Amino acid sequence: MGNLFKIAVRNLLRYKRRTILTASLITIGVVFVLVFISVSSSFKTMMTGQITDSMLGHIQVHRRGYVASIDNLPLNLNLKPDAVKKLDDILAQDRDIEAFSPRIKFGGMLSNFVETTNIRLNGVYPEREFRTVPLLASRISAGKKTLHRGEILIPALLSRGMGVKTGDTVVIVATNQDGSVNGKSLTVSGVLESATGPGGRDGYVHIEDAQEILRMPAADVSEVAMRLRDFGRLESVRLRLEGLLGSDMNPQGKPLFEVHTWEQLSPFYNIARMIDVMTFFIKLMLIAIVLISIMNVMVMAVYERIREIGTIAAIGTLPGKILSMFIIEGFCMGVLGTVIGNILGGGILYALNAAGITFDFGQQTGLILTATVDPADVAVLSGIVIIVSVIASLQPAFKASRMEPIAALRHV
Amino acid sequence: MSLITAENVCKDYHTGEVTIRALNDLSFAIEPAAFVSFVGPSGSGKTTLLNLIGCLDKPTEGKLTVSGTDISLLDRKESAAFRGSHIGFIFQDFNLIPVLTVYENIEYPLIMVQNIPAGERKNRILRLLEAVDMNAQKDKYPDQISGGQKQRVAIARALVTNPKLVLADEPTANLDSKTAYAVIELMKKMRDELQTTFIFSTHDQKIVGEAEILFTLEDGFLKSRETRGGGA
Ligand SMILES: Nc1ncnc2c1ncn2[C@@H]1O[C@H](COP(=O)(O)OP(=O)(O)OP(=O)(O)O)[C@@H](O)[C@H]1O
Ligand SMILES: [Mg+2]
Fold first, then answer.
1. Measured between CB atoms, which of A14, A310, A315 is closest to B84?
2. Domain residue limits, chain A
3. Shortest Cα–Cα distance, B205 to chain A (Å)
């Protein structure tokens, strides 16, 4: 085996320029894919983070049917206190769940005694909400990063449009489930920069204020948002929750709860998917580059060495050995391109991060690009390139191993 | 027992519609440790016959036995294995492996064809390097040595597996006459030391004189078989 490698490597060195050209082609491909994968996946991660951590949370549970009519914030589709209690018990025990926050979502009118406009509001337990969507606090651009009873966080758009500042008193008027109207005056404690995605322009009040405005004796919760300890376990947690909650039926015999991940709640999931599809096609392109370039070189290598093949076959080298000799050559070429590609790619990523490139996403500006790449991705990519190199050498190597020694020796 | 026996061996080549009978009804025997030369005009069938004996090709008719094995019965892989263990080859164009040094070229059959342990390999190679007087050049690559030196390396490579038979098709055609003579002398010396049978083909009359047994071919027929003086 060692000897086969020695011969393969020396043959590669024998045609230095060609080896360098082919290896650089593979290198360029690997570098390109690595940089693309890491930049796009960092972008994706950041985008996902922005969406989940500023508003959505990772997973949300609603009463069945709520999400279908989520745009009109139907109070009659809220979860009843006993359902909320049950959900609370389940979520509190789940070790995968870092935090969860019940919300009463409702539409109302905001008045500063001069102008009136409509607003969407979330009644929340402030501490739990801040833990469930940690970026919420950072969105508060003016005022305190807290929320107490009697206070309201209003979206920046309304603050600007109506000239409302922190410390001002506003009135919230809302219609409750029975159709009667109620109002409450609240102090503006902060202004919220908007976030990308649904709910990015909502205001926040304390859940007890929401109950008071809506005249709810106990909290009828519209949704419970939760944050997972490990985002990677999104799907398995969703499945588990569906299993745990699926047995609860409403009086009509339908399941009471519905569980959605952010992917089902945000249109940005499709962008994330598109990035994945693009990554897939770019990998496919790399495979094509490797396949064609290695095959080309190996076909040439076999053609140039026909007499050599005739010689070693004549003196008794078995076809299998000749086969491995050429496959190993392709393999070494693949390894060479991959190793250089990984080193260069790593260097470029390091440089990209060092350069501190920023980009904007939705309302968020100046997000710093941190291109990281999962070692497992690098390993898989390298593995693919090397395997493809071997596959590309198979046909030429097979041809070499099947040559008739006399014909090969006569070849000029 | 004879090392090689040919009984009514014929070889036809088919090129399109035409069939060429390259060897016609050859019967002969060659004994172990013989020093044999095939001579004859161009196209007389020397290469064809050497290819058959070398187990690189099969006779169309007749029976050819090498070292007790009927070579017609071997398949592709068995032929390769048979060549690897019983026959050494020397080529007109030397055919050393360009990416291997002199030493590694001689070592090649011991690693890639047979499976000889390292210690034993080294002994054999050093002995042969000495015998063909290439010890000083052992770390050079083929493109760094002369034609005569290449052919000496090729002789060592052919002998390193201790074959019973070494075949050389026009081994001196690409050498000047002095070097050619030296190469044949070296082959003879190795025959004397190792009792290996050598068969070579040649056009060169001076070289022919060195053969102990001379087969003359003409148009695929075996014209004559002469035994010269000094034969083993
Ligand atoms: N592969 C082949 N296909 C068809 N005909 C062939 C083939 N090889 C040899 N021949 C024919 O067989 C005959 C014998 O050829 P061979 O090569 O054995 O001659 P030779 O004695 O070695 O000649 P030279 O001294 O020129 O090497 C010739 O007529 C040649 O044209
Ligand atoms: Mg010939």
1. A315
2. 2-50+270-409, 65-255
3. 25
